[in-house]
Amino acid sequence: MQSLAPSLWRAKLTILAPRRARCVLFLCLSLWSMTDVMAAGVLKLSNVEIWLGPNQSTAELYAENVGDSMLYLDVLQRLLRNPGERPEQLVPLQEIEQPTLLVAPLRLALGPGQRYLIQLRELQRPGTPQVWRVTFQPREKITIAGELTDGAAAPLSLSIGYGVLIYQMPDK
Question: What's the number of domains the chain is made of?
Fold first, then answer.
């Protein structure tokens, strides 16, 4: 009996060794894949409101990625026709014959810790006050998929946008 005990012990070790290695490998892969899931680009804007008036210096708008991965953004510029009312009437820049303000660039890629100056160009002063809404939308969408009790999938897509209001005032 005593001579069988060491051989059984060795057999048990050889069976457990690959199992432990698989567990350790699985744990390492799980932790590595979680870092990809948790990594995200986070946008920080220098202003949420900008006033452009006749006696004001040129305003600056900076976009900064304070996250730990790349951030790809679409920049949408729209004219707000009815400020303060619901629902908002937003007119895309492409539909305005003579815009008084241009925001550039229309697409932006920011690395972790990178900061970029957004160009605001007044083409002319408006005759009446104008309000522009500039939205920075990440090109990635967060999709959450789950299952209902009857087995039907229930996906949910979420897109987050960051906005800036630009008030463009006329010459008195």
Answer: 2
Tokens of 130: 């104008």
**Structure pTM?**
0.69
Q: Which of 142, 67, 72 is nearest to 108 (CA)?
A: 72
Query: What radius of gyration, in Å, describes the C-alpha atoms of the chain?
Result: 28
Helix ranges (H only) for the chain are: 4-38
- The closest alpha carbon to 109, from 72, 136, 141, belongs to 72
| DSSP category for residue 47 | -
Q: Does residue 161 share a domain with residue 121? A: yes
> How large is the average pLDDT for residues 33-47?
70
Residues 109 and 161 in one domain: yes
CB atoms within 10 A of CB 53: 15
Same domain, 34 and 48: no
The 10s digit of each residue's pLDDT in 103-126 is 999 999 999 999 999 999 999 999
Contact 54, 169 (CB under 8 A): yes
Task: Assess whether 86 and 104 both reside in one domain.
Answer: yes
What is the span of the domain harbouring residue 31?
1-38
Question: What would the DSSP string read from start to end of 124-141?
Answer: S--SS-EEEEEEEEES--
